[in-house]
Amino acid sequence: MTFDEVELPGRIGVLTSGELDLLEFGVIGFDDEGRVREYNQHESSMAGLTRERVLGRLLFSEVAPCMGNAMVAGRFARAAADAEALDATLDYVLTLRMRPVKVRLRLLADPGAPLRYLLVQRLA
Question: Fewer C-beta within 10 Å: the chain N or C terminus?
Fold first, then answer.
């Protein structure tokens, strides 16, 4: 499974934590409250944050406040408010707890799914 895979939105929600760990990009799954429920090994290694430190925390205020803006958190909020699916990719720069890192983010949400997903692909 790749970051750009067209079928990814329908497939990611059925993967186990172990299967998410096999992916070569970061995966953060969070619930309607914004609490992190899935955090794969790739993202843990790249961000330098353990699962224990991240799981159960609020994504956009406690874990990654650098994404708590209209571009990222706001898009998830608008999709939820409108009960619309979301599949958007954007170039971004992560700045919290590290030097600036260029990434591509993929925002995935389905109104009927228990989790929303933020995928992170680091760029060279």
Answer: C
